[in-house]
Design brief:
single chain; disordered C terminus; 463 residues; 47% helix; Rossmann fold; alpha/beta; two-stranded antiparallel sheet; 2 domains; globular; binds magnesium ion; 12% strand; binds adenosine-5'-triphosphate
């Protein structure tokens, strides 16, 4: 049986890794990403398929030696892809065994969370059918599986890490904030690579994980150099040294020595072509009747777009250039910390940049407590072509959960959707905000959103 050669004194049978949750912890610069990179190199050499959620765009260097597809929105992607393509790529990766790096380094927090959620949800459900060995790598996992906060994404990742074995799914999770990672996942991990930590909170986590007296944990951990760690599995616990990565490490510590950019392997054309189809929506070529109808709609759309541009121009002319939330309350009135207010402001700025018909849609949804509308109904309400709405999906509104009501039961209120959105997009802040802060945040967001909607002109005629 093939073995994974992780270092001069550590070699693991490949079979032991199948369906395993592997946790890699340690402070910044202690060698976590190198350790994860070495595990991925060894898995790739053994043709073991995997996907890596790469939050800092540092794993593309694996392409120096292996055929890996890099998708997402960072600097080194083979194909830039958004949310809609995520399930398709996940399916291709698992079915065909194509290794994928999801470069989410350029995505905003909310977009990243949804992208990874869509991707991993498909992996989880399909793995139930295919039951093949497959590994998921997640850097900075405290952002995705934070201790004490519940999100849909956390649920999927925890499921993969804790219950993936029967489906062949394993996870390599990496974090520099041991104390902020969901404890259940850490304590259930079958293999741990514990690099150096210094803070008392992290040391406490290590003491809970290691079967050693506290003093010994402290002494051994403090003495670990870069690339050294304590390897802990069900069978053994010992100090090991991990080998350096053979491929380019995009997250290396910069120095004054010049760094050569490596030559990267390209992915086969047929894989790229298959992926591009997901990006394009993969529609079959239309017949003559459909083509005529399409042309007719395109003409209508062009007219509508011209009208929208004109409305947008008129709106801009009368628009005040002040901050996104014009009547934003001062910080002491909202009672929210500045970093939370900054994130709210970023969202509002994004919403204010929406094309005019999408902003009208927002205004409509906010004003009317949406129930289950169809896209055609929504388009009719805001007096825009359904095709225009479909061609330019209002992603920020989908993220806010306002349009997902379509798929849910009638009677879901706008406020409930906002609560759900806050749980996703502000998950990192919620432990500190507490239930009262969360309530304040939802109210603040609601006020700001209705202000955006009331600054909308040309809206009063809508019944
Ligand atoms: N086993 C090793 N052998 C030799 N060099 C190593 C080893 N592990 C890490 N290094 C080097 O140490 C530096 C930091 O490593 P790495 O990026 O893996 O740390 P990290 O813990 O992931 O840091 P961060 O938390 O900032 O992401 C890099 O330049 C890397 O090349
Ligand atoms: Mg790292």
């Amino acid at each position: 049986m093939r073995a994974l050669n992780l270092g001069p004194d550590l070699s693991l049978p490949l079979s032991e890794v199948i369906g395993q949750c592997v946790a890699i912890l340690g402070i910044r610069g202690s060698g976590k990403s190198n350790t994860a990179g070495v595990i991925f190199e060894e898995l790739l050499s053994a043709r073991y398929p995997l996907s890596i959620v790469d939050i800092d765009g540092e794993y593309f260097g694996l392409k120096e030696k292996y055929e890996v597809l890099v998708v997402g929105s960072g600097e080194n992607v083979d194909i830039g892809l958004g949310l809609d393509a995520a399930p398709g790529v996940a399916e291709l990766s698992l079915r065909e065994g194509v290794p994928v790096i999801l470069d989410v380094s350029d995505m905003l927090a909310e977009e990243r969370e949804l992208f990874v959620l869509e991707y991993l949800t498909r992996i989880w459900s399909l793995a139930g059918k295919l039951r093949k060995p497959y590994m998921i790598g997640i850097e900075e996992c405290h952002e995705f599986i934070p201790q004490g906060v519940r999100t849909d994404l956390k649920e999927v990742i925890s499921r993969i890490a804790l219950r993936g074995r029967k489906r062949g799914l394993g996870a390599v999770i990496v974090s520099q904030r041991s104390a902020k990672v969901e404890k259940d996942v850490l304590t259930q991990a079958g293999m741990l690579f514990l690099h150096r930590v210094v803070h008392e909170v992290d040391m406490r986590v290590y003491s809970e994980l290691l079967p050693w007296p506290k003093g010994e944990v402290k002494e051994t951990v403090a003495g670990l150099g870069v690339g050294e760690c304590i390897y802990l599995s069900r069978e053994e616990v010992r100090k090991v040294r991990i080998r350096p990565r053979a491929t380019f490490h995009g997250g290396f510590t910069p120095s004054f020595k010049p760094v050569e950019t490596p030559k990267l392997r390209q992915v086969r054309g047929e894989i790229l072509a298959a992926i591009r189809r997901f990006g394009d929506g993969a529609t079959p070529a239309p017949g003559p009747a459909l083509r005529n109808r399409l042309e007719e709609l395109e003409t209508q759309l062009a007219l509508k777009e011209a009208r929208l541009r004109e409305l947008e121009r008129r709106l801009k002319e009368g628009e005040d250039e002040s901050p996104a939330c014009q009547e934003a309350q001062p910080e002491d009135e909202t009672g929210l910390p500045p970093e939370v207010l900054r994130q709210v402001d970023r969202l509002l700025r994004r919403l204010k940049r929406l094309p005019v018909h999408q902003r009208r849609l927002l205004a409509f949804l906010v004003a009317r407590e949406p129930r289950a509308y169809t896209t055609a109904e929504l388009a009719a309400w805001i007096d825009c072509a359904e095709a225009a709405l479909l061609a330019e999906p209002p992603n920020p509104l989908v993220e806010l959960g306002l349009l997902s009501c379509e798929r849910l039961a009638r009677g879901i209120t706008y406020r409930a959707r906002l609560k759900h959105y806050v749980a996703h997009a502000f998950s990192g802040f919620l432990p500190e905000l507490g239930p009262e802060g969360e309530h304040l945040l939802i109210s603040h967001l609601r006020r700001c959103l209705s202000r955006i909607s009331t600054t909308e002109r040309n809206f009063s005629h809508i019944p």
